[in-house]
Amino acid sequence: MTAYGIIGTGHMGSMLAEEFIRRGAINREELWVSNRSQEKAQKLARKLGVRAADNLKVAERSDVLFLCVRPVDLKGVIAETSELLTPEKLIVSVAVDFSLRQLESLCRARAARAIPSVASGKGLGVTLLVLGSGASEDDRSLVFRLFGSIGWPVEVAEEQLEVLSDLTSSGPAYISAILREFALEASMRGAGVDKDLAEQLIKKTLIGTAALLEDESFDDLIAMVATRGGITEEGAKVIEALSPEMFRQLFSATSAKHRLVKDRIGNVEE
Ligand SMILES: NC(=O)c1ccc[n+]([C@@H]2O[C@H](COP(=O)([O-])OP(=O)(O)OC[C@H]3O[C@@H](n4cnc5c(N)ncnc54)[C@H](OP(=O)(O)O)[C@@H]3O)[C@@H](O)[C@H]2O)c1
Q1: Same domain assignment for residues 190 and 259
Q2: Which of 96, 124, 156 is the last residue of a domain?
Q3: Which residue range or ranges hold the Pyrroline-5-carboxylate reductase dimerisation domain (predicted)?
Q4: What is the pLDDT of residue 268?
Q5: Angle in degrees, 0-180, between the axes of helices 171-187 and 195-213, rounded to the nearest 10
Q6: What is the pLDDT of residues 79-98, one digit of tens each?
Q7: CA 240, 245, 248, 250 torsion-angle sign
Q8: Are both 76 and 139 inside the same structural domain?
């Protein structure tokens, strides 16, 4: 039996625990959880019927250990448990700004990085995966199986993780932010459209659009609606003209923040 551990039962750690158990990827009796404020881990353990303990015990018991704390807390968690993180164990970090090199320099365990999305909580999230040099083919199969149970795992180059996580991990927030503005503007056009109604309608439209996009490319779907010389084409032209600058600024802003977080974490491998 493989034993699994999750250190950090905040948003991501608790979502992974719940979904892995609910979808049968991990059995209840195989999972241990811990958290800095222990009552949070105990509450989750009671809810899921798994076991809660402190970081050391969870690290000791686990063959596969998910590290689900924020990047600034990760170094401390690994320092606390490093003696137990032997080459027989696989650690899987979900922290965006903590490199494989840093993970591998702090302990002897095999390492992988996995960046899921809140959409994984609906079984529909992309998880970006990067496997360390010590990870085996069995490790690759295992992480693909686990994250495959909650959506679509994709192995990527580590240097692409930052940009791609803007698309997949931050994506649900950005898509929501854009559509919220779209609905708000509709409610301000002077036609008496209620803002909540506009939001409900655009949410339903998003769900329908997502279903269509299972089969259609963006270009084909745009062409299906924005017929030549029609009204939608006028709106699509505005988006094409104005959004490149918005997305350029978005990536510049997130890139600057990634640099800041990395500076705060420091060069831990040195
Ligand atoms: N949220 C997302 O959509 C998302 C997506 C992809 C990746 N991630 C990554 O997931 C990680 C966690 O993010 P989150 O959103 O889940 O943050 P969060 O809700 O703040 O959860 C972090 C958890 O870590 C616990 N913790 C902190 N230090 C600890 C320690 N020394 N020992 C044990 N537990 C400790 C915290 O406990 P307390 O209750 O005591 O504060 C908290 O419950 C981050 O690295 C983030 O980059 C998040």
Answers
A1: yes
A2: 156
A3: 158-254
A4: 52
A5: 130
A6: 999 999 999 999 999 999 99
A7: negative
A8: yes
Q: Are 83 and 186 within one domain?
A: no
**Residue whose C-alpha is closest to residue 22's, from 150, 204, 201, 166:** 150
Q: Is residue 269 part of a domain?
A: no
Residue 123 identity: G
Is residue 166 assigned to a domain?
no
**Distance (Å, rounded) from C-alpha 68 to C-alpha 52?**
15
Answer whether 127 contacts ligand 1 (Cβ < 6 A). no
C-beta of 115 in contact with ligand 1 (< 6 A)? yes
Same domain, 90 and 127: yes
Which among 83, 81, 84 is positioned nearest to 69, based on CA atoms? Answer: 81
| Residue 144 included in any domain | yes
CATH number of the domain that 177 lies in?
A: 1.10.3730
Query: What strand order describes the sheet that includes 90-93?
Result: 51-52, 31-34, 4-7, 64-67, 90-93, 110-115, 125-131, 151-155
Q: 70 in ligand 1 pocket by Cβ < 6 Å?
A: yes
Find the 110 Cα to ligand 1 centroid distance in Å: 21
Indicate whether 161 belongs to any domain: no
CA angle 94, 14, 154 (to 5 degrees): 40
Which tens digit of pLDDT belongs to each residue from 198-227?
999 999 999 999 999 999 999 999 999 999
pLDDT of 267 > 90? The answer is no
Model confidence pLDDT, tens digit, residues 92-119: 999 999 999 999 999 999 999 999 999 9
Query: Could you list the residue range(s) of the whole structural domain that residue 80 is in?
Result: 4-156
Residues 183, 147: one domain?
A: no
